[in-house]
Amino acid sequence: MAKIKLEYLWLDGYYPTQNLRSKTKVEEHENFQGTLEELGNWSFDGSSTRQAEGGSSDCLLVPVAIYPDPDRINGYLVMTEVMNADGTPHVSNGRATIDDDDNDFWFGFEQEYFIMDTATQLPLGFPVGGYPAPQGMYYCSVGGKNTHGRDLVEEHADLCIDAGLNFEGINQEVASGQWEFQLFAKGAKKAGDEIWIARYLLDRLTEKYGYYIDYHPKPLGKDMDWNGSGMHANFSNNTLRTCGSKETYEAICEAFRPVVKEHIEVYGEFNDQRLTGDHETAAITDFSYGVSDRGASIRIPIITVEKGWKGWLEDRRPASNGDPYKIAGRIIKTVKSAKI
């Protein structure tokens, strides 16, 4: 019999920005295979996470995905959904809002973030009491003058790959100390699971570096002349992948126009500080789409057009601190409403 360490992860009830919580369950198994079928439900004190009252505080954790924990011996990362005591989805459970049981929708998320120095409370590369050189030389840079935090980023990439996530890439972003990673999954729920697992691995990794991750979309202040952080959502369904029709693409894009408010509500807190119409963003009150247009709300990739209008769309509005479950759920609902 071997002792297995199961790290149960869930999202708390803080609003509008939820936080990751986790705790370890140690079990004995004779021949553990790392499958969901081998896992049981668990519970936690919801009164400590804004998900229940003290007099009736138990909330359920129902496993939905499991990955090897590359930083623990006999360890596994278990993503869970929070359920009420009667088994119904908790109001904080964004995953339960996703209407994609057949995995028709594919998502690729581009997660941007700032690496912050715990001692200075500033992004890496920022001097105390001042500013580094203006943005321009940091994007996809190399060398100690402009590149900060590579050791952390490379180690995080290795952890994600070793955990079995469909990790697709990394790059330094436009501002000093700002980075991005990309994940792709066939199935909206799986895409959300993997972003949260990747965020967990990144946050946990900072504990040994003396850093922390800031997912705020504009951590340097709304008036600073620096790019903010987003989580661009690249998405497709079978129609977008196969239709071969410009008119169909335009009809799907137009379905987003009347529900701008509904999307912005789940696209991340403080996003108004980022979506200003500057720094490669569309204004938060506007809606636009265009081929190869990074200043539009939705970009139609040039590759999609070159392949005869068969491909995907990129919603550039989601903020870096958004919940990928809620973002995907809202995008799916809008795409399904399109009159095509």
TrEMBL record:
The entry's cellular-component GO terms read: cytoplasm
Q: Does the keyword Transmembrane helix apply?
A: no
**GO BP annotations, alphabetical order:** glutamine biosynthetic process
Domain GS catalytic, which positions?
89-340
Going by the UniProt record, its keywords in alphabetical order are:
ATP-binding, Cytoplasm, Ligase, Nucleotide-binding
Q: Which SUPFAM superfamilies does the annotation name?
A: Glutamine synthetase, N-terminal domain (SSF54368), Glutamine synthetase/guanido kinase (SSF55931)
Gene Ontology molecular-function annotations = ATP binding; glutamine synthetase activity
Pfam families (UniProt xref):
Gln-synt_C (PF00120), Gln-synt_N (PF03951)
* Location in or out of the cell: Cytoplasm
Function, as annotated, reads: Catalyzes the ATP-dependent biosynthesis of glutamine from glutamate and ammonia.
PANTHER family reported for this sequence: GLUTAMINE SYNTHETASE, GLUTAMINE SYNTHETASE 2 CYTOPLASMIC
Q: Which family does it belong to?
A: Belongs to the glutamine synthetase family.
Could you give the subunit structure recorded for this chain? Homooctamer and homotetramer.
- Which named protein is this? glutamine synthetase
Q: Which gene encodes it?
A: glnII
